[in-house]
Amino acid sequence: MPVTIAVLGDRNVDLLTHREIDATLALVPADVDARWLPSPEAESAAEADGLWVVPGTPYRDDGAVLGAIHRARTAGMPILGTCGGFQYMVVEFARNAAGIGGAAHEETEPDAPDPVVARLSCSLVGEERQVTAVAGTRIAELCGTAPFTGFHWCNYGLAPEREAALVGAGLVVSARAPDAGVEAVELPGHPFYLATLFQPQVGSSSSGQLHPLIAALISAAAGAASMPGAFRRPAHGGPARGSLRSERPRR
Q1: Model's pTM, two decimal places?
Q2: Domain boundaries, the chain
């Protein structure tokens, strides 16, 4: 059976970042079945080998996306979050691992007094920043420690005043950038748990190559596929493994 990766988000080809995701999906190896999964069907991600939570927030079903992230984190499913996926992974971790029960995202809860994901000091929509990975982290292993260019399309990121609480609960800040602050987080001991504010898929249409982070997610998912039953459960009301109800762009 092919390695399956659920690309969780609400596809909109009017968005540059989503067209770049389509370009990335066209580059995955032939034995990898990576396809879009709309947020209302997020529970079906339980049957995949890996999960990529992609940009485009708010999602049509925020609760379903947070539930899928929670399961991937606690069950050891390989998960990558980019941009909005980064933000929602931070919220889920804050609520369920760091004990911040009312952890809020300012985009969806603008009146929250102390959000975990807050508006950035300046908009990063269509902006590039020099991202620097922290030595000894997984992102440094994959991308190196020299600064590299990261493309953004966002207005929200990890609130600086909340960073210490998340780090205290075990989350590792693994990359930073000027004016963007925290650019990546990861969880040591998890098979693959990595989230980036920058969008690694952007540029795939011109380079014709997979970004190292996406290639690493595929590798981790392949490892999970070789251990059937390691973290999967039947998705209630959902399809069987290998039949994610989703859309795959044409190659």
Answers
A1: 0.90
A2: 3-225
